[in-house]
Design goal:
Shape of chain A: globular
CATH class of the largest domain in chain B: Alpha Beta
Number of strands of chain B: 5
Order of helices and strands of chain A: HEHEEHEEEHHEEEHEHHHEEHHH
Oligomer: heterodimer
Radius of gyration of chain B: 19 Å
CATH architecture of the largest domain in chain B: 3-Layer(aba) Sandwich
CATH superfamily of the largest domain in chain B: NADH:ubiquinone oxidoreductase-like, 20kDa subunit
Number of strands of chain A: 12
Distance between the termini of chain A: 25 Å
Bound molecules: iron/sulfur cluster
Order of helices and strands of chain B: EHHEEHEHHEHHHHHH
Number of domains of chain A: 2
Number of helices of chain A: 12
Structural class of chain B: alpha/beta
Strand order of the largest sheet of chain B: 2-1-3-4-5
Strand content of chain A: 15-25%
Largest interface: A-B, 39 and 41 residues
Helix content of chain B: 25-40%
Helix content of chain A: 25-40%
Strand order of the largest sheet of chain A: 6-7-8-9-1-10
Distance between the termini of chain B: 38 Å
Largest sheet of chain A: 6 strands, mixed
Shape of chain B: globular
């Protein structure tokens, strides 16, 4: 997959410094652990090179698909134009989030606000240390981004990344593959779509979904969840603003349509739906697993709902 | 139905603390603009004039109904307004006024001693108990943005849409540490309707449930989590009773 093709450059200390300066100018965001113990993607306080990849509570997607955003507003017959963001960088992105970025790039290929931000971002991956919840797998999907950096090497993941590397004086290439963690903490369960479909009436759905609070946390933290709702706001000055904000398929109105009909009533159906999306994808991406194995959802879920555990039970194997 | 500005609006207060009115009054930067599109016929916190119109576009109701005379006024209001909107927890569910539900007699005697019987009151109720309600603006107090947007939507002949989701969603989006998980705090976020941008949990205070219960709330599971966190059945009942949501 993509990582074998990424040209890799050997970096001298001076090239590395030039590169770090160039990135610093882009007011980078980086995952950093705050005093309350939570890791957030936020403006970098230390140097670029001392950063490392960490799994932030809310993943990279919030940068390109903000939790709430104004899409347009309309006043006195005039639409307001979309604001172009300033160029910016994100550093310390773990490999799983780079895969998730690839997935979102496919989904939002035609989405102007998303693409505007993507076009102005320099996304820099870095090596991570495996956590006990990690089940990443390079085979799951390709990855996106611009650069991948360790202390001595840089991988160009995009033409923009490659141009930056060359501009900083990187020349000598090697054929080092991307440093994927070797001993994965666990493996993703092998669930076939046939197994999933034939278990439509299995008791496990209702059993597992019974405790779901529909709290929304699982989609907030999932790097590949992208559901949103669109709501209009009418101000007293007569202007109207269209907003979009994150949604979750466990919410009561996620599949409600005019007339009050609900395509997916009840939490058991919703859990099956979430599982289908994460394991088998929808629409043009049908057949593409959309879970990168980051483990965020099972860590955050207040009632310990774990898709991998359900998949393991459905496929009849035991989870590593 | 698109209303022609200025729309006539009567803010009617029943049993309440006037905090909802204060929220609108405090929207200083929008008041001049509001005055262009809204003709305020009644607003007790700003004027003692009572609405004398025989027909009104919109009635905004603050407060719970606790006396027969309040009930009469509410019915009269319903007859003359085209749209009736319940504003704030008191008007929606009874709000904090309904705290004494169940132990009412005892509480009356404690507070009013020998005069307890002189008060012709009944347990506080939200207005939907008695009349048709066309719109609801939840919260104790409601969010200013929601008040203004609701009036803005009325001007366009509509009513604002809302995401039906719990406070937890906003809390997680704000990247707060979860108080229920971290501190075993009795946070009502999982069953409370969002829209306040997780105001309390974002300040480290467990959600009190002032915006009312979200559709399809999983109360049983929250109860189980609370018991696991060390709360008693009585704690849970008191917690839910605060905004009139006791089982
Ligand atoms: S995090 Fe868990 S409880 Fe919350 S909506 Fe997701 S599955 Fe349900
Ligand atoms: S482990 Fe959970 S949060 Fe992570 S990608 Fe898979 S479904 Fe999303
Ligand atoms: S449908 Fe569910 S699983 Fe899929 S993106 Fe939306 S919230 Fe996530
Ligand atoms: S602190 Fe409260 S509102 Fe926030 S996530 Fe936890 S339970 Fe939900």
């Amino acid at each position: 997959m993509t990582d074998f093709l990424s040209p890799n450059y050997l970096l001298t200390p001076s090239t590395l410094d030039t590169l770090a300066d160039a990135i610093t100018k882009l007011s980078p965001l980086a995952p950093q652990v705050n005093a309350d113990g939570l890791c957030r993607l936020q403006p970098l306080s230390e140097g670029v090179l001392s950063s490392q990849a960490l799994s932030s509570f809310v993943p990279l997607k919030k940068v390109f698909l903000p939790p709430r955003e104004k899409l347009w507003s309309f006043q006195s017959g005039q639409f307001s134009a979309l604001k172009q963001p300033e160029p910016f960088a994100v550093v310390g992105v773990p490999l799983c989030d780079l895969q998730a970025l690839w997935y979102l790039d496919q989904v939002f290929a035609d989405d102007l606000p998303y693409q505007n931000r993507r076009a102005r971002a320099l996304v820099v991956g870095m090596p991570c240390e495996q956590d006990k919840e990690c089940r990443c797998d390079r085979q799951l999907m390709p990855l996106a981004g611009d650069l991948f950096l360790d202390q001595e090497h840089a991988w160009a993941l995009s033409p923009a990344g490659e141009a930056l590397l060359r501009a900083c004086g990187a020349g000598e290439t090697t054929n080092k593959p991307l440093p994927w963690p070797t001993a994965s903490a666990g493996t993703r369960p092998m669930l076939t779509e046939e197994q999933y479909r034939s278990a439509a009436d299995a008791a496990i759905w209702a059993e597992a979904a019974k405790g779901c609070l529909s709290c929304g946390a699982c989609s907030v933290v999932c790097p590949t969840c992208y559901c949103f709702d669109m709501l209009d706001e009418s101000a007293t000055d007569g202007s109207v603003t269209r907003n979009r904000s994150w949604d979750n398929c466990f919410f009561a109105e996620h599949a409600k349509v005019a007339g009050g009909h609900d395509f997916r009533s009840g939490r058991a159906n919703r859990l099956r739906f979430r599982m289908e999306h994460k394991f088998f994808g929808f629409g043009a991406l049908h057949g593409q697993n959309s879970c990168v194995g980051c483990g965020r959802c099972r860590t955050v879920c207040p009632v310990d709902i774990d898709l991998d555990q359900i998949a393991t039970r459905l496929s009849g194997e035991e989870l590593a | 139905m698109k209303l022609k500005p200025p729309i006539t609006l009567a803010w009617t207060r029943f049993t309440s603390c006037s905090g909802c009115q204060l929220m609108l009054l405090n929207c200083e930067s929008s008041l001049a603009e509001l005055a262009q599109v809204v003709a305020l016929r009644e607003f007790p916190l700003a004027t003692s004039t009572e609405c004398k119109d025989e027909e009104i576009d919109v009635g905004l109701v603050e407060g719970s109904i606790t006396t027969p005379s309040e009930l009469e006024r509410l019915l009269a209001l319903r007859r003359k307004v085209n749209l009736l909107v319940a504003v704030g927890a008191c008007a929606l569910t009874g709000g904090v006024n309904s705290l004494v539900r169940g132990e009412r007699r005892q509480a009356m005697t404690e507070v009013y001693a020998g005069q307890a019987d002189e008060w012709n009151t009944f347990p506080p109720q939200g207005i939907e108990h008695f009349v048709k309600v066309d719109g609801q603006i939840p919260g104790c107090p409601p969010e200013q943005g929601e008040l203004l947007n609701s009036i803005g939507a009325l001007l366009h002949g509509g009513w604002p849409g809302h995401q039906v989701m719990p406070v937890c969603m906003e809390c997680r989006i704000n990247e707060n540490p979860c108080l229920l998980e971290r501190d075993c705090a009795p946070c009502l976020g999982p069953i409370t309707l969002a829209g306040c941008n997780a105001r309390c949990p974002s300040l480290g205070v467990p959600c009190e449930g002032c915006r009312g219960v979200v559709a399809e709330a999983n109360r049983d599971e929250l109860r189980r989590l609370f018991i696991t966190a060390g709360l008693t059945e009585q704690d849970i009942r008191h917690r839910l009773e605060r905004f009139g949501e006791a089982p």
